[in-house]
Amino acid sequence: MTIAVAVCLAPLVAHAEEGPAFDCAEAEGSVEQLICAEPDLAALDRRMADRFAAAVAVAEGLDTDAEETVRTLRAYQRGWISGRDECWKETDVAGCVRREYLFREAQLVAEFLLEPASNVTEYSCADGSALTVTLFETQLTAMRVEQGDRVGVGGAAGPEAPGTFYLQPMGSFVVGPDGAELVDPYGDAVACEVSG
């Protein structure tokens, strides 16, 4: 009798492992419905849920401001979900949703150091500041830029802008053959070169 119950429940368990982290019966809007219908997007949603849970665990373990960090993280995640759901306006809705997941994953990994660094480079900039630039091998390469007490986190812009990383809240970091530039959100750029 136990085997018969297990065989009957097996398709339900398999479906739960293939679907997104949220309940598709309660999917709201066309983007959530698309995530339920597309296995690759559902897989990204499950991975995002895991990354978010790991980030919350790191935030809860902080020595100072743990509660505030968790509250802020949860608020940003709600904001990110709202932004992801705006992909319904795009021509390529699935492509937009995929980019949103990959960029948010890169942000979480870089901010909460959820993976080991794949590369760390020190830069000296024309304004006299020093940068520590750390890369992480996520599906969309993640970057963390530390400039004094400021930290910017984000991911690669993609094939349309090679060497460009969008960073929250700093702006962008562009790596080229002759050095790099830190570009603030207003478009002002500072040239940087590898130290040492």
Can you give me a brief rundown of this structure?
Pfam families: LprI. This protein has five helices and eight strands.
Structural features, described:
Strand 4 and strand 5 form a beta hairpin. The protein contains five helices and eight strands, in the order H-H-H-H-H-E-E-E-E-E-E-E-E. It is 45% helix and 25% strand. It is α+β, with helices and mostly antiparallel strands and 196 residues long. The N terminus is likely disordered. The protein folds into two domains: 111 residues, no CATH class; 76 residues, Lipocalin (Beta Barrel). Helix 2 crosses helix 3 and helix 3 runs parallel beside helix 5. 28% of the residues are buried. An eight-stranded antiparallel β-barrel has the order 1-2-3-4-5-6-7-8. This is DUF1311 domain-containing protein. Pfam families: LprI. Keywords: Signal.
Inertia-based shape = globular
Rg (CA only): 20 Å
Into which percentage range does the β-strand content fall? 25-35%
Order of helices and strands: HHHHHEEEEEEEE
How much helical structure, as a percent, in the residues? 40-55%
Number of domains: 2
User: How far is the first residue's CA from the last residue's CA?
Assistant: 70 Å
Separate helix tally = 5
Q: How would you sum up the major sheet?
A: 8 strands, antiparallel, barrel
- Quaternary structure classification: single chain
The number of distinct β-strands equals 8
Mean pLDDT: 90
> In what order do the strands lie side by side in the largest sheet?
1-2-3-4-5-6-7-8
Low-confidence stretches: 1-16
Structure class:
alpha+beta
Pfam families: LprI (PF07007)
Protein name: DUF1311 domain-containing protein
Keywords: Signal
